[in-house]
Design brief:
By secondary structure, the chain is an all-alpha fold. The protein contains ten helices and two strands. The protein has a two-stranded antiparallel ribbon with strand order 1-2. Helix 6 runs antiparallel to helix 9 and helix 6 runs parallel beside helix 10.
């Protein structure tokens, strides 16, 4: 346990030194909320089926935080360690595979929760953000969303031979998902062709699940639940199969 705590603390410090990671996880989502909230306000609107813009946008922006931590943070760290032979050295120690992987998972999960908490605090203080769903359902949706996106990050780490390749793959996955999933721009504003494309992205289903469990509309969530669960299982199985230590 002491080893896990020490390794996690080290990984936490290293992650906080990554400016791009910190900016997009902690700064950019609250800035987006401040910008869009100041434009649309927090009054109920027909565009959001009687809900306020801020109450709908906040859980959507949570998807942005999850994507940053899972797609940008997690695989890039592991790929860099592989390139620098760090994973190879760890593999030769008595620590074991789980002790090597767990700190990365724990740290990125904690950073993800911190980013989401900062977003919620800004929403409450500035716009009187309100939660209208069930806490346990939303917590389950959040955990499933994180599991699905993080498993996709592990898959990127498994197939990328070095940090440069991991960065290229991460950017190619991250930015289309960010702009087509509803994490930044509402899907209702997209052309039908882009809406069809968005349905193939796991982050789209994550945003939908978070959004609906936040505002209390929990009916007919079978499709996003199945998609996110399937993505989690498939990506983990493929990652374990393809992961290389060097």
């Amino acid at each position: 346990m002491n080893v896990l705590i020490k390794m996690s603390a080290t990984e936490f410090k290293l992650s906080l030194r990554n400016f791009i990671y910190v900016f997009f996880a902690f700064v950019f989502p609250p800035l987006m909320l401040l910008l869009m909230g100041s434009i649309f306000g927090n009054e109920p609107t027909d565009f959001y089926n009687g809900h306020s813009a801020v109450n709908v946008m906040t859980p959507s922006y949570m998807g942005m935080v999850i994507a940053v931590c899972g797609i940008m943070g997690l695989p890039l760290q592991l790929a860099e360690y592989r390139q620098r032979k760090v994973l190879k050295r760890f593999k030769a120690t008595p620590l074991g595979t789980s002790m090597i992987m767990l700190p990365h998972l724990i740290v990125n999960f904690i950073l993800c929760i911190i980013g989401i908490a900062l977003l919620v605090v800004v929403g409450i203080i500035v716009f009187d953000l309100q939660f209208m769903g069930h806490y346990l359902l939303f917590a389950a949706a959040l955990v499933l969303s994180i599991a699905a996106i993080f498993s996709l990050g592990f898959l990127i780490a498994a197939v990328a031979p070095n940090s440069r390749a991991a960065s290229a793959i991460a950017y190619l996955v991250y930015f289309p998902m960010l702009f087509l999933s509803g994490a930044t721009m509402p899907i209702q504003m997209m052309p039908s062709a882009l809406v069809s494309v968005s349905k193939a992205l796991p982050l789209t289903h994550s945003v939908e699940l978070l959004n609906r469990t936040w505002i209390g509309e929990t009916g007919d969530l079978l499709i996003p639940l199945i998609v996110l669960a399937a993505v989690t299982i498939v990506c983990i199985l493929v990652s374990v199969r393809l992961f290389r230590w060097e």
